[in-house]
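Z., the sequence and structure:
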Amino acid sequence: MKRFENKVLVVTGAGVGIGYEIARQFAQEGATVALNDLDESLTKQAAQSIIDEGGKCIGIAGDASNVDFIQDLILQVNKKFGKIDIAIPNAGITLFDGFLNYTEEKLSKVIQLNIVGSFFLLQVASKVMIENKTKGKLIVMSSVTGHQAHQDLAAYGLTKAALEMLARSLVIELSPYGININGIAPGATTTERTLSDKNYHSTWSKITPLGKPATTEDIANVALFLASNEANHITGQTIIVDGGWTAISPGPETVS
């Protein structure tokens, strides 16, 4: 029997990159996956790719920063499958700029998706889990920038640090219901977005102690672990997946 047979996963921001690989890996391990992305065509394409590989997946397009949509997403999935076992608010946005130049508009966008969207997806999913008496697993997606300062990412970093504090705080309220909540903090990761920078892989290979940036599979593997029975006694924690970068933290500017 596969690890997540008869389990239902909801994951946002999963059209490409880390979110897609998380959805794909859970489906391969037997989970029924509800995959969300803002882009409707990307959502359909991603869900179909997982189905073509033999997985069980539905795509639900929509804005994961919109609280009304989030509630509808969770209720749709619960109605269709009768439960939700795992919820991962993966959708997030990075808007680079220096602190002295950052605008209210940019900050609002980053906070609305990264914090507000994640907060309410966790809230609605938790209510469904409690109602169904499901001992579920919640996973927030943080970042190494929530641990170490990074040029032009003050706003993004504060949202990721906030998600880790949220995971710790919710231990108080969710543990009595048997719901675990943990986080993953990826470091430099090779995705479709980072591949557009021709220097990304070589630069981060030089400044990452293990000699290369993470793959999306590296991050998905941690999500699988945290959602599994092997992690039943782990809650309120964040696992950093960065090849050792936060241990020494050299910036890209150190590479000549």
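The mean pLDDT is 96. The longest strand covers residues 180-186.

Let me know what you think.
H.
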